[in-house]
Amino acid sequence: MTEAKILDAALRLLDQGGPAAASVRRIAAEVGVAPNAIYTYFPDKAAVLRALAERLLGGVDHDVFADLEQHWRIRVEALALELRVTLTAHPGAVGLLVGGPLDGPSSMALNERLLQLFADAGLGPDAAAQASYLLMVYVFGSVSREVAGVHGGGPLPPEQERVAARRAELSAVPSDRFPLTAAAAVTMAGSTSTEQYVWGLRRILAGLSALSDGDDGPDGVDGAPEAAAP
Amino acid sequence: MTEAKILDAALRLLDQGGPAAASVRRIAAEVGVAPNAIYTYFPDKAAVLRALAERLLGGVDHDVFADLEQHWRIRVEALALELRVTLTAHPGAVGLLVGGPLDGPSSMALNERLLQLFADAGLGPDAAAQASYLLMVYVFGSVSREVAGVHGGGPLPPEQERVAARRAELSAVPSDRFPLTAAAAVTMAGSTSTEQYVWGLRRILAGLSALSDGDDGPDGVDGAPEAAAP
DNA sequence: ACAAACTTTGGACGCCGTACAGCAACGGTG
DNA sequence: CACCGTTGCTGTACGGCGTCCAAAGTTTGT
Question: Which residue of A has its CA nearest to B99?
Answer without folding.
Answer: A148
